[in-house]
Amino acid sequence: MRCVIARFPFDLSKSGVVASMKGVKPEPIVGESVQIGRRHFPVKQVGEVVTRQDRRDFSAQEVVRAMTRLGFTCHDLAEPAPARVLTPLQSASALLGTPAPAPA
Questions:
Q1: Domain that holds residue 69
Q2: Which among 97, 99, 35 has a CA at the least distance from the CA of 67?
Q3: What beta strand segments (E) does 6-68 contain?
Q4: Domain-located, residue 89
Q5: Which secondary structure element, helix H or strand E, spans residue 3, and what is its range?
Q6: What DSSP designation does 20 have?
Q7: Within the chain, what is the greatest distance between any pair of CA atoms?
Q8: Do the strands 2-5 and 8-11 form a parallel or antiparallel pair, or are they unpaired?
């Protein structure tokens, strides 16, 4: 399939992307990611490996669009769940080592 990334056309295939990413260690994910096989890669890392361009030359959205069209699953960075806040009674019970009453 023909994709345009950073104003350059590329003929990409799903099997070609899988082969290019084989043996590549995923970097920590800080933004959008793409699932290739059982691994999740940052889209900028995939774009850099597949196109052999500097990742500053293209946007993450360009790679997400291309990977989605090829049939890969792309993910946004999910917001972390808010930390659970203890009530004053639960905090006191935790400090004293006694079981707190169940919330109503």
A1: 2-75
A2: 35
A3: 8-11, 33-36, 39-42
A4: no
A5: strand 2-5
A6: H
A7: 66
A8: antiparallel
Residue 84: Cβ within 10 Å count? 6
Contact (Cβ atoms closer than 8 angstroms) between residue 42 and residue 27 = yes
Q: What is the pTM of this model?
A: 0.70
Q: Are 70 and 29 in contact (CB under 8 A)?
A: no
Place of tokens 């999910």: 78
The angle at the Cα of 97, spanning 95 to 103, to the nearest 5 degrees, equals: 85
Give a yes or no: residue 34 inside a domain: yes
Q: Please, which residues bridge with residue 3 across strands? A: 10
Q: What is the pLDDT of residues 16-49, one digit of tens each?
A: 999 999 999 999 998 899 999 999 999 999 999 9
In a domain, 103, yes or no: no
Separation of alpha carbons 49 and 44, rounded Å: 9
DSSP states along 63-98: HHHHHHHHT-EEEPPPPPPPPPPPPHHHHHHHHHTP
